[in-house]
């Protein structure tokens, strides 16, 4: 019997590149509403499972190429040999729900946190929206409004039900990197502003050289290379806290990195090609502790319509991005975003260049957002087109405390920006949330894109 290899979900996982044939590939239907012409029409889009969650095996058999958190020395003695020897296989209808805990119905997608399958225990998932069975759906967001219904009521501290855009290649990298034979059809080509090293294949080649198994995650590790690109976080949240964030870079498109340009944590963090911190708008961190959460103004106990507007300076699709504005709708009520609530700080209620500059200065944060070109550069990336990502994950690096607790954990609780959510600093330990909250689920539905103020 074949043994499925499922990797624990962490930020920035992905892999490829040969396409296996042992399991037929099935993409789940998830239609969206395209309202860009002024009237809404249903678009027959689908979702594909990220390649990292797939079974990876030798191309001529069933033996795993990656086992535990290490590459097989037999099939992967070096990157070139590994790339030639290994394939990722399909995800059929039964595997979507039975192995990964992912279901779709109409325009709704549900991601379950932990699923006990026949051969494995799966943790988290990440999927991409497709326009066809071989290509990702590309979104051009400048001068547009993006809307989605989200249910985070079943997500406790330590989890992140995320929906975001990244500047991935439409075909998953097949045309740019000929050794990638799987492409978007198998969920390849992931990148983000963290320039993740745990991407198993980068630029069509195995990232096995210099691979270091993780010390606290039995199924993950890091390779020599990273995969960088612009990232626009629409929604990073659980039931306790939420944020949306712009992450510009000083390189265009999908960019493999090595060494300093990856901006690894530590001395190189702000020397890399992407702004890892980003310019975030998080109500709790901005001093409003009664806005989002169970029973609050934006009530995380119920479904929330999350609207994000990408406003340009001249009101055209080609203009410079000048503002990212957030609006909520819940139970028929329109709720404007909460404004910054600190004495002496301008009461901004959206992401603008002045907001990013002032709030980062107030928090004492490095303004890498401006250094990487700010909103104007972010807008240029959005003009080139982004892929929609939906995921559910826990955090083996910082226990998600950066999202929902006090961070850094040894920071002054009275210092502006330290408080990011109400969760205790002891929360979010992956082994604990995986055992205690296996059934945690996030749901995304009713996705729409259209003109500004079309909600």
Automatic annotation (TrEMBL):
Q: Name one Pfam family in it.
A: Glyco_hydro_7
* Gene Ontology MF, one: cellulose 1,4-beta-cellobiosidase activity
Q: Which reaction does it catalyse?
A: Hydrolysis of (1->4)-beta-D-glucosidic linkages in cellulose and cellotetraose, releasing cellobiose from the non-reducing ends of the chains
Q: Which UniProt keywords apply?
A: Carbohydrate metabolism, Cellulose degradation, Glycosidase, Hydrolase, Polysaccharide degradation, Signal
Q: Which residues form the signal peptide?
A: 1-16
Q: What is its EC number?
A: 3.2.1.91
SUPFAM superfamilies registered for this protein in UniProt: Concanavalin A-like lectins/glucanases
Q: Name one GO biological process term.
A: cellulose catabolic process
Secreted as UniProt keyword = no
Broadest EC class assigned to this enzyme:
hydrolase
Q: Which family does it belong to?
A: Belongs to the glycosyl hydrolase 7 (cellulase C) family.
Q: What is the protein name for this chain?
A: cellulose 1,4-beta-cellobiosidase (non-reducing end)
Q: Which organism is it from?
A: Hyalella azteca (Amphipod)
* Name of encoding gene: LOC108682452
């Amino acid at each position: 019997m074949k043994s499925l290899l499922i990797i624990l979900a962490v930020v920035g996982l992905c892999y490829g590149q040969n396409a296996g044939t042992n399991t037929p590939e099935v993409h789940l239907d998830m239609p969206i509403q395209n309202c860009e012409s002024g009237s809404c029409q249903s678009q027959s889009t689908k979702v594909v499972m990220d390649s990292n969650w797939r079974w990876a095996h030798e191309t001529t058999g069933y033996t795993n190429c990656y086992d535990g958190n290490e590459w097989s020395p037999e099939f992967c003695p070096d990157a070139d040999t590994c790339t030639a020897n290994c394939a990722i296989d399909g995800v059929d209808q039964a595997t979507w729900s039975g192995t990964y805990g992912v279901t779709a119905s109409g325009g709704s997608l549900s991601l379950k946190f932990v699923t006990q399958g026949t051969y494995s225990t799966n943790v988290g998932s990440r999927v991409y929206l497709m326009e066809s069975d071989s290509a990702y759906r590309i979104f051009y967001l400048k001068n547009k409004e993006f809307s989605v219904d989200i249910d985070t009521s079943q997500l406790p501290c330590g989890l992140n039900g995320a929906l975001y855009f990244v500047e991935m290649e439409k075909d998953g990298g097949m045309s740019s990197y000929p050794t990638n034979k799987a492409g978007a059809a198998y969920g390849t080509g992931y990148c983000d502003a963290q320039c993740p090293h745990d991407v198993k294949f980068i630029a069509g080649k195995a990232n096995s050289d210099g691979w270091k198994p993780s010390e606290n995650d039995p199924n993950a590790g890091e390779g020599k290379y990273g995969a960088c690109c612009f990232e626009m976080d629409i929604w990073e949240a659980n039931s306790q806290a939420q944020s949306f964030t712009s992450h510009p870079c000083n390189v265009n498109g999908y960019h493999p990195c090595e060494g300093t340009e990856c901006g690894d944590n530590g001395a190189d963090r702000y020397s890399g090609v992407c702004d890892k911190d980003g310019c975030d708008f998080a109500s709790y961190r901005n001093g409003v502790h009664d806005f989002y959460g169970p029973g609050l103004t934006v009530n995380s106990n119920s479904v929330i319509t999350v609207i994000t507007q990408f406003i340009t300076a001249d009101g055209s699709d080609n203009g410079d991005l000048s503002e990212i504005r957030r609006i909520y709708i819940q139970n028929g009520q329109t709720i404007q975003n909460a404004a910054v609530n600190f004495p002496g700080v301008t009461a901004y209620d959206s992401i603008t260049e002045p907001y990013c500059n002032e709030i980062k200065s107030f928090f004492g944060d490095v303004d890498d957002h401006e250094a990487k070109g700010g909103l104007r550069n972010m807008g240029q990336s959005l003009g080139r087109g982004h892929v929609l990502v939906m995921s559910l994950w826990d955090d083996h690096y910082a226990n998600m405390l950066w999202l929902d607790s006090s961070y850094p954990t040894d920071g002054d609780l009275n210092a502006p920006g330290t408080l990011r959510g109400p969760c205790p600093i002891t929360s979010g330990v992956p082994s604990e949330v995986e055992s205690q909250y296996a059934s945690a689920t996030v749901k995304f539905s009713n996705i729409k894109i259209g003109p500004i103020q079309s909600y």
